[in-house]
Amino acid sequence: MTVKKVVLAYSGGLDTSVILHWLRDVYDCEIVTFTADLGQGGEVEEARAKAEAAGIKEIYIEDLREEFVRDYVFPMFRANALYEGIYLLGTSIARPLIAKRQIEIALETGADAVSHGATGKGNDQVRFELGYYAFKPDIKVIAPWREWDLNSRTKLLAFARDHNIPVPAEKRNAPPYSMDANLLHTSYEGNVLEDPWQPYEESMFTRSVAPEAAPDVPEIIEIDFEQGDPVSVNGKKLSPAALLEALNTLGGKHGVGRIDIVENRYVGMKSRGVYETPGGTILLEARRSVESLTLDRGAAHLKDELMPRYAELIYNGYWWSPEREMLQAAIDHSQQRVTGTAKVKLYKGCATVIGRKSPNSLYNSDIATFEEDTAYDQRDAAGFIRLNALRFRLNPR
Predict the structure, then answer these.
(1) Contacts (Cβ under 8 Å, ≥6 apart) of 373
(2) pTM of this prediction?
(3) Is the distance from CB of 183 to CB of 68 less than 8 angstroms?
(4) How are strands ordered across the β-sheet holding 30-37?
(5) What SS3 class is residue 68?
(6) What pLDDT score was predicted for residue 71?
(7) Per-residue pLDDT averaged across 216-242, rounded?
(8) How many angstroms separate the CA atoms of 365 and 373, rounded?
(9) Measured between alpha carbons, how far is 59 from 48 in angstroms, rounded to an integer?
(10) Which residues contact 328 (CB under 8 A, 6 or more apart)?
(11) Among 1, 27, 134, 361, which residue is least crowded by beta carbons within 10 Å?
């Protein structure tokens, strides 16, 4: 394959730094680096410095935090999406945005190819490439992990040494955790986690304290929602990114949002991952509590039936598919009445809803009360039960 110019999704880490030099060696092409700031922290500016040191002339560093939360995280949360009942999809939901912007940069710069650092064993290769082809069907894709022979950490380090690629001292010895971070979560894989029986190391975590080390006094917060999306915390209006960041701080302080799971990758293997999602965990509990007041039973139950399919589409990389967009339209329609406030207690790793209210509440205390009322005739239940039992009575055990 002949390539003139390639846009590389570049983090500045060991893998993509090696890929940058490898692309020059193998394809002898111009390279554009693209680093998306999705809230991962200081490594964004480090990536710029490394790309400049490598002689890259076209360097894209873009702050996409607001777009990420507003147009990807929040729509996903309207579905209350959990993959395999537990994973909040923090890595999965970031890939469609990166892929879309990468193709846009390719069109802006006249590049005929794009490249990523995902391995041939993981889900991200699918997520990136389905996004690429959705926006430019004829784009050339270079996936080095599926091409090169640098299939071990030892070979990567040797390549880095031979090409004068700086490697931090802490990464020269024991293999580090494989980490991915953005405003929604931080993920950890590899190292000791490759043994699913072995407990994780507390020193691994970056954005939350251990629940047992969290404050001994609970903290009560309130989150306001408008048509399914959070808009303020404790009465303070915040932008989508600022709101999620505020919830991350609150949740991290109280040890909220850690999970340790074995998940089923799209490519077929099982993988163990540990995730920190403090703000997202609070948000999920709060959202569901407001929905419990405002959604009709049929709509709420249908949403819960659709959710596993929706979550699987995102996990497998089908954000840009017609079926995800179709589901999104139904989900968004259901959110028109989801306006209200959730009161959440944060304490020792738990986010517990202790109150909820809404101007659109379908809860009627006059009907639900255990005291005497005139709104509900309990004798009506007898006929209701007999009608529902008719098929049992016609076919007794």
Answers:
(1) 366, 367
(2) 0.94
(3) yes
(4) 58-63, 30-37, 5-9, 113-115, 140-142
(5) helix
(6) 98
(7) 98
(8) 10
(9) 7
(10) 75, 79, 310
(11) 1
Whole-number Cα distances in Å, 139 to 5, 8, 11, 130: 11, 13, 21, 11
- Strands 140-142, 178-181: pairing is unpaired
Residues annotated as catalytic are 15, 95, 124, 178
pLDDT score at 164: 87
Among 92, 90, 82, 104, residue whose Cα is nearest residue 32: 104
Q: Which two tokens stand for residue 192?
A: 């000791």
State the residue for tokens 């920190």: 276
Percent of the chain surpassing pLDDT 70: 97
User: Hey, where are the domains in the chain?
Assistant: 5-76+88-175, 181-357
**Taking the CB of residue 386, how many other CB atoms lie within 10 A of it?**
10
Residue 373 predicted with pLDDT over 80: no
**Which tops the pLDDT comparison, 217 or 45?**
217
What is the DSSP track for 300-320? Answer: HHHHHHHHHHHHHHHHTT-TT
Is a pLDDT exceeding 90 seen at residue 206? yes
Q: At CA 63, angle to CA 251 and CA 241, rounded to 5?
A: 30
Options 3.90.1150.10, 3.40.50.620, 3.90.400.10, 3.10.310.30; CATH of 5-76+88-175: 3.40.50.620
Query: Could you tell me if 244 and 251 are in contact, meaning their C-beta atoms sit under 8 angstroms apart?
Result: no
CB neighbour list of residue 386: distance below 8 Å, 6 or more residues apart: none
